């Protein structure tokens, strides 16, 4: 005979059932408790979002188009972007993007991704690199012949969660609360000094100051999963604010974004990466 459930168990299950849709996944109960995570990174904001208004269908690239450096739009002879076993594979062989055909604003983006094994010149021995560009506007390839003018939520070994401003015809700007690291770079720090940039980078709070652009780099405080394991990344675009959550932890947050709507771009940038879930959920006010 099974023992009766405890009050704590019943309370936990009731809370899960009652939770609004779109809430970020917290760190799993059976995961070891991290002692190197600041309290503000555990205070993940509550997200109230509706059913997806766009999602990857698991079958094909409907709703997206490709843009590759030197090739242009919807020209992908080497199949840089394909669907395999229900996941999008960006091979990394050529630099470019998989871009939503529609623009979005005020949304909760949910993405599940993992690194593959393949890497390519000129980043064959460099840290695996990709990224999610939000609020993409203007011409395809306006940034270096490859990307769109946008705000980048970086995906790179050791630096997933960094913010970069990707200039095109105009220079996007963003404000973050920061601290200055031992390397004199800016790191996200809730309650820190607000700084506005229109180029460069805001590092996520736990990026290793000794970061090296080398394949397989791992920082001591990384919350990214090991190579080959699935990560859950959430980006909340609410008005002029952009918040990034990685595997249940708040890793970066910006405000006063000059850009508040646009397309979403997923990069191919020298390393193989898979996306098994992409959902754009409207924020419920």
Task: Tell me about this structure.
By secondary structure, the chain is mainly beta. The chain contains two helices and 19 strands. It has a single domain, classed as Exo-inulinase, domain 1 (Jelly Rolls, Sandwich). Strands 1, 4, 5, 7, 11, 12, 13, 15, 16, 17 and 19 form an eleven-stranded antiparallel β-sheet that branches. Strands 3-2-6-18-8-9-10-14 form an eight-stranded antiparallel β-sheet, with no helix packed on it. A hairpin with a 3-residue loop joins β2 and β3. The N terminus is likely disordered.
The outline comes out as: globular
Counting structural domains, the number is 1
Percent of residues in β-strands: 35-45%
Mean pLDDT: 91
The CATH topology, please? Jelly Rolls
Assign the CATH architecture: Sandwich
Low-confidence stretches: 1-21, 23-30
Task: State the share of residues found in helices, binned by percent.
Answer: under 10%
User: Major sheet: size, sense and barrel closure?
Assistant: 11 strands, antiparallel
**Structure summary, number of beta strands:** 19
* Name of the level-1 CATH class: Mainly Beta
Give me the number of helical elements.
2
CATH superfamily: Exo-inulinase, domain 1
Class from helix and strand fractions: mainly beta
Query: How far do the termini sit from each other?
Result: 47 Å
